[in-house]
Structures are given as C-alpha cells and as structure tokens.
Amino acid sequence: MTLLLLAGTGDAKRIAWGLVDTSIKVIASLAGATRAPDPLPVPTRIGGFGGEDGFRDYLRGSEITAVLDATHPFAAQISDRTARICGELGLPYAQFVRPVWTPEDGDNWTTIAAPVDAVNHIANGSTVFLATGRQTLAEYANLAGRRVLVRVIDPPTAPLPFEGGEFIIGRPPFTQASEAALFRALGVTHLVSKNAGGQGGRAKLDAARELGLPVLLLDRPKTAPQIRSPQQLVSVQDALLWVSSLAGMP
C-alpha cells in the first residue's frame, strides 16, 4: 500500500509521525506555500502537481493506492479536486476535517461569510490584526482607513496593499501570553482570522478574549456536496484508524 498524505498542517505532521513505524509506505505532499516548511518524518514532495491531468498522472505513476487529505480547512479547491479525481480513479479517499472553533464565555466573535464583510464591523481608525494569510490580502482592500497589521510566516516579496499598515513576521506555534503581549504592544483593536479550528491557532483567540477584543471569524468554504468525502475524519486517531483499515491493500 502506498498512501499519499496531502499535508501542510500540524495535524498532517502528527498523522505522519503516527505512521512512521508501520509497514505502510507514505508519501507526503506540500503545496510549497512557505519557503522553509517544517520537515515531515516521511518522504515529502513539494510543489503543485501541474493541474488535474498532472495530479492524475502522479497518482498513477507513483502507484498511489489511497489518499488522505489533511490540507488546511480553507483549501477547498484542493480538497474538492482531490475527492473528485480519487472517485474517478477508484482510489480510497478521506478528508481530515478538524472541528471549527466555538466561542467560550467572554468571547466577542462575529462570523463573516466573506473578507469583504469585515469592513462592516471595523470603524475607521481601528488597528486590525489580520491573521488570514498573505494569499487573500487583496480581498481585504476595502479596509482602507484602518491600520492593518498582516501576520505572515515568510518575509514578503510584494508590498503591503494597505497604507499605514505593516507586515508582522511570525512562525507558529504561538502562546496566549505571547499573542496578548503582541496585541498590547501593537495597540490592536480588532482581530480577523479564519475559523480554521485546531489547537495550533487558538492562542490568538484566547488572547483576544483576555484583552476584550472583538474577533471577526471568516466562515469555512462549503465543500461541493456532489463530491463531498464519504470519509470525514475529525481526529488524528480517526485518521490513523482509517489508514490501518486499508493496510491490507497491495
């Protein structure tokens, strides 16, 4: 059996470690969104597949027998494409879907359906901490008139599309204490984040609650119902059990 693990998240890394001492051959794939990704304990390819045809060719050429999708919850296009192509080729496919974050006592959260909606909840002159990644910056262009602080993992190669803002370079994991100290030092008045779920990114939300900051959470994209994965796994243990159930495959 040869498993393709679509990675790029902390959950994928934990799954990879859980498969290290098994007889299952695992190949991980990273999209290459960051310049120096954390290494995985299994053979890893980095970069795209060259579109749908390239992905089909890779699956056939590498003799992949099952695919476990542990990409980011907001990588909907990748997940939809993968589910559909695996269905075409008759390959077992499962998607790791970590539970969404839910508010606790003291949280001040507003869910937004799209980045353009954030402006409706943030007054001019506010200082906004944008923790949604660099790929979607253009979608927040209507935040002009606010000081926008954009956290990125790698030093940017393109200028910030906001006047009076700045990039904040930082690589996770972060702690509640470090996030709260950063927000205080920067004078943050609003936090904007994706509802990615998981433990790794929760610290910024806990820090916002500690400081009484309003949070705008971008809702997850909807998976196309006609290609929704028949196997949606919500824990690393679920993922390992699913792979184990296929271990008798050639």
Automatic annotation (TrEMBL):
Coiled-coil boundaries: none
Leader sequence residues: none
Tree of life domain: Bacteria
The EC number(s) this enzyme carries: 1.3.1.54
Gene Ontology biological process terms in this record: cobalamin biosynthetic process
Record keyword Oxidoreductase present: yes
Matching InterPro entries: Precorrin-6x_reduct
UniProt keyword annotations, A-Z: Cobalamin biosynthesis, Oxidoreductase
Keyword Transmembrane helix assigned: no
Molecular function terms from GO: precorrin-6A reductase activity
Pathway named in the protein's UniProt entry: Cofactor biosynthesis; adenosylcobalamin biosynthesis
Protein name as it appears in the record: Precorrin-6A reductase CobK
Source taxonomy: Bacteria, Pseudomonadati, Pseudomonadota, Alphaproteobacteria, Rhodobacterales
